[in-house]
UniProtKB/TrEMBL annotation:
Name of the protein: Mitochondrial dicarboxylate/tricarboxylate transporter DTC
Ranges for the Solcar repeats: 8-90, 103-190, 199-289
Keywords, in A-Z order: Membrane, Mitochondrion, Mitochondrion inner membrane, Repeat, Transmembrane, Transmembrane helix, Transport
Mode of membrane association: Multi-pass membrane protein
Length: 295
């Protein structure tokens, strides 16, 4: 296998994620702000959060952390989509028309977990940059861009600081990949069995929507925990962190209210559903472009 053939799934995934991420970045900002407000007992109304953001930061506020978003799409989305394509190719048996659901699920879970660790530094930087203006001015990190965020984190917290929240990020990514990719593949099979053209618009768009919906359902609880861990700071008086880890955060949230795990689900789905759907559609189109160009 040549260099391009090895790199192509990752390039395709990176381009797909970056295009989709640019489109939904404003919704992602609002989603993060809602989760932070829910953890602190604040107003989680979409309209209130969006209006507050616009009033405080102007239109540019909806694109805070855009450089971190692109870094995240290249490192994380490129890896999880690229690895999934490679894993499914490796899992295919000679003469097997389609992979069984358990195989696609295993490939999706594995690709999501590995990609999350690769992309955690960018994901951590993105969450912090999006939430920075919510902190008191003296506590703001004021990262200039994603590279400045990386350098500052390493300087202040050590190299291991780049992996803060990685276990929760990996769980969230596994849930997202399972819902998004395994159900996308299954939906394509079902739509083809119903007589829709293989590779046609109905199959591609319908399966992409199914992947976006189930990806949101399976990943939101993990995303909530991940966000709380990545934005936490030591208590000014005691120096202690609010959570000891993902399990501690999950248990405290569960005791407070199980429904907190699904805080902001409409806006989360409005963000995760479209970005997953758009990513899968763009990925399909880019793959067809490579084929048309004989690449």
């Amino acid at each position: 296998m040549g260099v391009w053939e090895s790199c192509k799934p990752f390039v395709t995934g990176s381009l797909s994620g970056s295009i989709a991420g640019t489109i939904v970045q404003p919704i992602d900002i609002v989603k993060v702000r809602i989760q932070l407000a829910a953890a602190e007992g604040g107003n989680t109304s979409v309209a209130h959060v969006a209006q507050t953001l616009l009033r405080q930061d102007g239109p540019a506020g909806f694109f805070q952390g855009i450089t971190a978003m692109y870094a995240r799409q290249v490192l994380y989305t490129g890896s999880r989509l690229g690895l999934y394509d490679q894993f499914t190719a490796m899992a295919s048996s000679p003469g097997e028309a389609a992979l069984p659901f358990w195989k696609t699920s295993l490939c999706a879970l594995s690709a999501g977990g590995i990609a999350a660790v690769i992309g955690n530094p960018a994901d951590l930087s993105l969450v912090r940059m999006q939430a920075d203006n919510l902190l008191p001015e003296a506590q703001r990190r004021n990262y200039k861009h994603v590279l400045d965020a990386f350098a500052t984190i390493v300087k202040q917290e050590g190299a291991a600081g780049l992996l803060q929240g990685a276990p929760a990020t990996a769980l969230r990514a596994m849930g997202l990949n399972f819902g998004m990719l395994a159900f996308n593949s299954k939906a394509k099979e079902q739509l083809a069995a119903m007589g829709f053209e293989k590779g046609g618009n109905v199959q591609v768009f319908g399966a992409a929507f199914a992947g976006g919906f189930f990806g949101s359902v399976f990943s939101l609880p993990f995303d909530f925990v991940k966000t709380q861990l990545q934005k936490m700071k030591p208590d000014p008086s005691t120096g202690e962190m609010p959570f000891k880890g993902p399990l501690d955060c999950a248990l405290k949230t569960l005791r407070a209210s199980p429904l907190r795990f699904y805080s902001g689900f409409p806006v989360y789905f409005a963000r995760t559903g479209p970005i997953s759907t758009i990513t899968l559609i763009v990925q399909d189109r880019i793959k067809k472009l490579w084929a048309a160009l004989d690449l």
